[in-house]
Write a structure and sequence with these properties.
Blueprint: H1 4-9, E1 19-27, H2 31-43, E2 52-57, H3 62-68, H4 74-82, E3 86-91, H5 105-112, E4 117-123, E5 133-139, E6 149-153, E7 159-163, H6 169-192, E8 203-208, H7 216-230, E9 238-243, H8 244-253, E10 260-263, H9 265-275, E11 288-290, E12 295-297, H10 316-329, H11 332-348, H12 362-373
Parallel strand pairs: 1-2, 1-3, 3-12, 5-10, 8-9, 8-10
Antiparallel strand pairs: 4-5, 4-11, 6-7, 11-12
Helix pairs in contact: 2-10, 2-12, 6-7, 8-9, 10-11, 11-12
Pfam family, one: Iso_dh
Pathway: Amino-acid biosynthesis; L-lysine biosynthesis via AAA pathway; L-alpha-aminoadipate from 2-oxoglutarate: step 4/5
Domain Isopropylmalate dehydrogenase-like: 21-369
Length: 374
């Protein structure tokens, strides 16, 4: 049985027309500069898609915490749960030292809304750079990101810090099913479209470190394999494995061999950020936090305080994340239109931000992509 979110994402039927309410959460830093790009593409979708949008501005982030003592207001969660059809999240600052009382609002949102999967497509534009077409599916709710840590002092006066790495059969089953479903549905799209593909058959590469962490990563590996082997629908998906350090090596050496990659939270975070280097910049890589009934589009980049306020942040990751959100809401045709406009911008190689070697502003890139939608 396909999860509702994945069925919606790849549905061939268009949901009934209605006004969609989208929560906008800029967060910190350049999040405030790129979230308007997501709004702009939604507002400028051609009328033939019969989509209209309402937007609600919501707050979250480290800067909000510094002002109010709260990183994720209850109101933000309540509005998302009760009023919104989807949401966009910009960026969040992550202090490198412990700040008493603070925890990441996006991590908290994922837990509160049941967004157990972080789906990160990494795809090159045809004719530009190395060929890459993979989706990294990252477990979103546990692993070291549960943030259960402690520090204690030994008898000799030295300090020891410990962190719990939690891997559960339930969470791993959920993320494994999502990965196999995405692999199958990507193959359906390949079989029914004229778009050239790097892959002739669907595959999922399970990434782990069970040669060292035989209990925790061992459970992740065993559960992923069990879900594959005991589900008739998933037999069409080729099952593969990679130890995480070998995965990093092969991903950079031969990225074209990977179709769908599934990993625990920490490895998935590292792999997806690293994979951005294969396609030019973190500024072009989208993601969606997905659960059974909701999706939040979120660019993979951070708050980038070094370029904040300069008007040069790359809006493409946010624009692609907006399209990805639409996919998981069931509006694949409209999402495809946005992807095509972005690809045309990148292929023309004229209007691009400094991270891609250009000198265009954020707004100039937004304007160019919006013009390609019309």
């Amino acid at each position: 049985m396909l999860s509702r979110s994945v069925r919606r994402a790849f549905s061939t039927s268009t949901p009934a027309l209605k006004t969609l309410k989208i929560g906008l959460i800029p967060g910190d830093g350049i999040g405030r500069e790129v979230i308007p790009a997501g709004r702009a593409v939604l507002e400028n979708l051609p009328s033939r898609y019969d989509l209209q949008f309402e937007f609600v501005d919501l707050e979250a982030g480290f800067e909000l915490f510094q002002k109010t003592g709260t990183a994720l207001p209850d109101k933000t969660v309540e509005v998302l749960q009760k009023e919104c059809d989807g949401a966009l999240f910009g960026a969040v600052s992550s202090p490198t030292t412990k700040v008493e009382g603070y925890s990441s609002p996006i991590v908290a949102l994922r837990k509160k809304l049941g967004l157990y999967a972080n789906v990160r497509p990494v795809k090159s534009v045809e004719g530009i750079g190395r060929p890459v077409d993979m989706v990294i599916v990252r477990e979103n709710t546990e692993d070291l990101y549960i943030k259960e840590e402690r520090i204690y002092t030994k008898e000799d006066g030295t300090k020891v810090a410990e962190a719990i790495k939690r891997i559960s059969e339930t969470a791993t089953s959920n993320i494994a099913k999502m990965a196999y479903q995405i692999a199958l549905l990507r193959q359906v799209i390949r079989n029914t479209s004229d778009v050239k593909s790097l892959h002739s058959e669907p595959s999922v590469t399970v990434t782990h470190k069970s040669n060292v962490l035989s209990v925790s990563d061992g459970l992740f590996r065993e559960t992923c394999k069990k879900i594959h082997d005991t589900n008739v629908d998933f037999q069409a998906v080729q099952y593969k494995e990679q130890i995480v350090d070998s995965m990093v090596y092969k991903m950079f050496r031969d990225p074209e061999i990977f179709d769908v990659v599934v990993a625990p939270n920490l490895y998935g975070d590292i792999l997806s950020d690293g994979a951005a280097a294969l396609v030019g910049s973190l500024g072009v890589v989208p993601s969606a936090n997905v659960g059974a009934n909701f999706a939040i589009g979120e660019p993979c980049h951070g708050s980038a305080p070094d370029i904040e306020g300069k008007g040069i942040s790359n809006p493409i990751a946010t624009i692609r994340s907006t399209a990805l959100m639409l996919e998981f809401m069931g509006y694949s045709d409209a999402a495809a239109k946005i992807y095509t406009a972005v690809d045309a911008n990148l292929a023309e190689d004229k209007i691009k931000t400094p991270d891609l070697g250009g000198n265009s502003s954020t707004q100039e890139v937004i304007n160019d992509i919006v013009a390609r939608l019309l």
